[in-house]
Amino acid sequence: MLTDEFGREVTGVRVSLTDRCNFDCVYCHNEGLGDTRGPMDPQDDEMSADDVVRFLEVAAEFDVDAVKFTGGEPMLRQDLEEIIERTPDGMEVSLTTNGTFLPGRAEALVDAGLERVNVSQDALDPEDFAAVTKSGAYEKVLEGVEAALEAGLDPVKLNMVVFEHTAGYVPEMVDHVAANDGLQLQLIEYMPELTGKPEWNVDIERVHDWLAERADEIEHREMHDRRRYWVSDGSSGADDVGSNAAGRGMVEIVDPVENPTFCANCHRVRVTHEGYLKGCLNRNDDLKPMGEMTKPEIRDAFREVVADRVPYYGEYMVRNDDGEWEINEKYLEEYAGA
Ligand SMILES: Nc1nc2c(ncn2[C@@H]2O[C@H](COP(=O)(O)OP(=O)(O)OP(=O)(O)O)[C@@H](O)[C@H]2O)c(=O)[nH]1
Ligand SMILES: C[S@@+](CC[C@H](N)C(=O)[O-])C[C@H]1O[C@@H](n2cnc3c(N)ncnc32)[C@H](O)[C@@H]1O
Ligand code: SF4
Ligand code: SF4
């Protein structure tokens, strides 16, 4: 297993299979890849299935035991089933998708070896959903969630970015997952780092406080030290503390912004659709090419990207005398022009 200079073992990889998307969400960071708009057909710059599989085989040599496929919209890749099928044995395979292509395809993904899915759903109202995603596909997303559950994926996590446009939906979404077996909710702090618009921020601590009041039980996940809140479905009357029966739901908060604890527990390396390794979501100055993607080249690049990994908050970004975050000069010099 490879460990970076800050003692963070790399146990997972997040592979962006494309930067194309059928949505145009107003908040989208596109995993640091830029604009999702553009042609929807397969593009020449995307890693082939063979490249992705070769990369995963090398990652497995380094004891990486989980892969997340993301994008853009990863389900625009027609070879997704093939890629999942060819993922090395023993590697947990999960997918983050906007859900629109799950109807009719969820079962094939499960047959290929998909174990978990996260579906982005930012609202419980078609109009607000359309305003956030610039798409009218709300019904398709609900059908997608249903298709994932029917295909046996459990849990199905709903991803909701908490920002000005969606904050009002948090209580309703929490009730929704508490009342529906198989669903969990992931509340993601809006990250303005790559998209701008810091004015859309919502104080995520207020959401933590509200959930702490609402929850029966609070857990800490090793990854990123994320907090998980177990909530009961008030409407079903199943609100006994400690109840594990139906009528309880899990809500996890993903709060990376200005959070050194989150970054100190970050165990993933990313891969862009073009086949560059990336040590941190928020940075584009540490991209490492993998050459022609032969195994020796992939091995070397993987070792290098891990060696250069730096926790973003607390190290790459540090607080100045006024308490504001600024780039640590040390890293600015090191990576300038990279
Ligand atoms: N800054 C930062 N944000 C992250 C990180 N991991 C997840 N996020 C945010 O959370 C979003 C959703 O994450 P997902 O792709 O659904 O997966 P996940 O929650 O990290 O992983 P699982 O819970 O294991 O499925 C990402 O696109 C980011 O916006 C991370 O390591 N750093
Ligand atoms: C970039 S998308 C790619 C996968 C797929 N298209 C989807 O939307 O699920 C992955 C996740 O990033 C989240 N995300 C995008 N921009 C974000 C931002 N600025 N802040 C926080 N999360 C964001 C989305 O909500 C989604 O759950
Ligand atoms: S669906 Fe995902 S990739 Fe597409 S615009 Fe929305 S957040 Fe970005
Ligand atoms: S180091 Fe980068 S990728 Fe890891 S948690 Fe922090 S911001 Fe996210």
TrEMBL record:
Q: Cofactor binding mode, per the note? A: Binds 2 [4Fe-4S] clusters. Binds 1 [4Fe-4S] cluster coordinated with 3 cysteines and an exchangeable S-adenosyl-L-methionine and 1 [4Fe-4S] cluster coordinated with 3 cysteines and the GTP-derived substrate.
Alphabetically sorted, this entry's keywords are: 4Fe-4S, GTP-binding, Iron, Iron-sulfur, Lyase, Metal-binding, Molybdenum cofactor biosynthesis, Nucleotide-binding, S-adenosyl-L-methionine
Per the similarity annotation, which family is this? Belongs to the radical SAM superfamily. MoaA family.
Reactions it catalyzes: GTP + AH2 + S-adenosyl-L-methionine = (8S)-3',8-cyclo-7,8-dihydroguanosine 5'-triphosphate + 5'-deoxyadenosine + L-methionine + A + H(+)
Q: Which residues bind GTP?
A: R14, K68, T96, K157, R268, V269, R270
Tell me which residues bind [4Fe-4S] cluster 2. C263, C266, C280
Chain positions recorded as [4Fe-4S] cluster 1 binding sites: C21, C25, C28
By what name is this protein known?
Probable GTP 3',8-cyclase
Tell me the domain of life.
Archaea
What organism is this sequence from? Answer: Natrinema saccharevitans
Function as written in the Swiss-Prot or TrEMBL entry: Catalyzes the cyclization of GTP to (8S)-3',8-cyclo-7,8-dihydroguanosine 5'-triphosphate.
Enumerate the GO terms in the molecular function aspect: 4 iron, 4 sulfur cluster binding; cyclic pyranopterin monophosphate synthase activity; GTP 3',8'-cyclase activity; GTP binding; metal ion binding; S-adenosyl-L-methionine binding
SUPFAM superfamilies listed in its UniProt record: Radical SAM enzymes
- GO BP: Mo-molybdopterin cofactor biosynthetic process
TM helices/strands, residue ranges: none
| Name of the gene this protein is made from | moaA
Biological pathway: Cofactor biosynthesis; molybdopterin biosynthesis
Start and end of every Radical SAM core domain? 5-233
